[in-house]
Specification:
3 domains, globular, disordered C terminus, 19% strand, 37% helix, Rossmann fold, binds adenosine-5'-diphosphate, binds magnesium ion, 435 residues, four-stranded antiparallel sheet, alpha/beta, nine-stranded mixed sheet
Amino acid sequence: MHELPPETIRDAIQRAARTMRLGHVPIDRLVYTRWLTTTDVLPVVIVNLDMADLEKPSARLLGRDMRHEIGTHLGGALVLPSNHSGARYVIFLRKPRLPETVPCPENLPAQTFALGVTIDEHLHLPVARMQNVLAGGAPGSGKSTFLHLLAGQAAGKGYRLFLADPQENTFAPGAWEGLAALPVASSPAAFQALLESLLEIFAERSAQFAAQTPVCPDIETYNRTAEEPLPRLMLLVDEANTFLVDKTIQNKLADVARQGRKYGLTVVLAAHDWRAASISKGLSANFTTRLTFRVDDATSGQVVLLSPKLGKAAMNLRHPGRGIGRFPGYGIRLFQACLPPEMPSGVRGASAPLLTRREREILEHIRAHGGKATLEVLQAYGLGQREARRLQAAWLERGLLVRDPMQGNACVLAAEWHAGVLPDKPDKADKADKA
Ligand SMILES: Nc1ncnc2c1ncn2[C@@H]1O[C@H](COP(=O)(O)OP(=O)(O)O)[C@@H](O)[C@H]1O
Ligand SMILES: [Mg+2]
């Protein structure tokens, strides 16, 4: 293993301290350890300095100059502070790299969301800091996966989920409906209705807060003493700009996002194309966590990160899930997002997707037509042409439909669905059909 002897490190630190006029620095502990989840097996040295023994303020010791000095005395090694309390240095003997995948940690404290890792620490946000999130990134850069990461953790913490996805790709209704408080909103009208429901919940909670003596200012205070704590809420919206072109919706969403904090709502908006026009200043101001994965143009990155320079930097991100963000308590960081947690059955990879009643009806209608899900058949059920196309695309993605090369690549029910493996009720119509 690649190692620096302890004497060399102690010596480098004392020499750096002398250059910095800090006097003698008592070294408390010197360990060799593996560093976070970096893919390299990276030998790391952590040096603990006991602050109580130091005459000089910690800021100087932790400062960039001191770290630079130590690095110089070690032949140009990168030296980073390893946490935010006390003087602890991590000395990288080789240039550290972010891992390509980071699993969502198991047994995370109930009060913590794991977002990812930076080069030198885990990116964990306590629930109280998990306020509104604005996310950007080109197609394929990791947005949907990130939304699943947040939705999965929130569901595990008992949040009520509100989902909107115009393309029904990220939150396929069949898979997610069971976990969400309302059907996944895919049209502007449905999204607006969903915002109305949230405002109703706020009004209800407002009355509950007002009934307390003294009046509760917010959900934290209420839940501290309430017999039945109120569940937190999370609204996750993919391809958000589809909805935001409508100014009425944008204003309503701004209202929801602003009040949300008090009533326990976290709003998460994702889109691949952010323009200044797609998000008003009033709405944008409500988002304290802002992050972007790779973008195709600097503007999207700039709108999300509020900096032209960072917007440009986001164009150079290559790996999916790699992003630049502004995080409360962490500042601006390069990070690798965690992969989503294992979801409860019915979501992600479960064998039988859950179907809504309407979807089951459509499925039976398709069966009654010999398993073909052509546009004509779907229109005969009563779907508009656009809706029929969307349903075809979404069901192909979910594996309910497949293309049959024997029938000119027509969309047909996948074998297991054709055979009648409905998740719940047994199906008489199907038998009659086959007879
Ligand atoms: N955090 C991540 N870590 C590793 N790979 C990821 C991560 N996020 C996404 N990917 C990979 O990139 C692919 C596209 O991600 P996705 O979330 O669908 O992107 P988007 O929604 O931006 O189009 C995923 O199928 C996965 O293979
Ligand atoms: Mg996506």
